[in-house]
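Example record for the data management plan.
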Amino acid sequence: MNQVYITNTATFLPNSPISNDEMESYLGFLSDTPSKSRRIVLRSNGIKTRYYALNKQREATHTNAEMAALAIRNLCNNDNEQLAAIELLTAGTSSPDQLVPSHAAMVHGWLPETRSIEVVSPSGACCSGMHALKYAFMSVRAGDVTTAVAVASERASGLMRAEMFATEAENLSALKDNPYIGFEKEFLRWMLSDGAGAFLLSNEPKPNQINFKIEWIEGISFANKVEACMYMGSDKQSDGTLKSFMDYTAEEIAMLSILSVKQDVKLLSQNIVALGFDNMKEILAKKNINVDSIDYLLPHMSSEFFRSKIAERLDSNNNSIPQEKWFTNLSEVGNVGAGSIYLMLDALVKTKQLLKGQKILMAVPESSRFSYMFCMLTVV
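Corresponding structural encoding:
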């Protein structure tokens, strides 16, 4: 088996950073009324700025696939020879521009300088970016390819525009109900951001620069134990099952905002930390890793609200990692879903003086039906 290295990282963030007070001027007001939940959510999530592939007319400035391709161009310094050397492209997202063709195929379409290569699109939410990384890792490790690109991106803003909820909001107003969308839908309007990140993988490190050796990537799902928590293109029924958009009429899809992304906040708080970080304890034990050897923890957090919860769980599991070893850029770029861990590692490279031999643990929870991915890197 080959050793596998991340030899370069890059990102693409659309347009200019958007402050908390500007959000509704881009996303729009529901029923022409300022949100009652926005300040509550922003108070706890710790996000100060984020990026939208939207202008103030709520028109798209980039597609999801285009942003992913721009991150890859940055990864390859927009050099045709480097783009042509890519042998495999894997692309993860939870907000593809279309159901078919696949997201990776659409990203590939934005890169005519590349060759005709294998493309892979893991489906899912936040973990889809890590699944893309694992497929690329395994392909290089097995010797199928020598050079691969893994990219993860999100364009959640298109799902959060006021137009996506207009029919439902009008219906609630007509019923003289509260003229705003239920919290499980509106909650995520103030959490999600747009952007893309990309990794270049090779079976050899590049000389005279920072490389990351991928030691291992481990994942687990708890869908056999817990019902869906975050979902899109469906609606949750009273028994906890999901009813597909295919089983609604066109009128119902609009009236019930079936295509919006929703989250069961209560289910999230009950499970997201406990399931994932208890599993992390088991993985580290299996790998015979002492947490004291970890130099940086990169935790994908949807909100700063979870920082203390994660720390408490690590403490109770005798896996304490001091806060000074934690690294995240959530406050600057927001929650970019599948792309967040890519943006985090790229920011770590650009802002920290990394030393050979340092260990970096990346932790990515996914609330959709409680999946988790963990990856250990060594600086070489």
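Summary line stored alongside the record: The longest strand covers residues 212-221.
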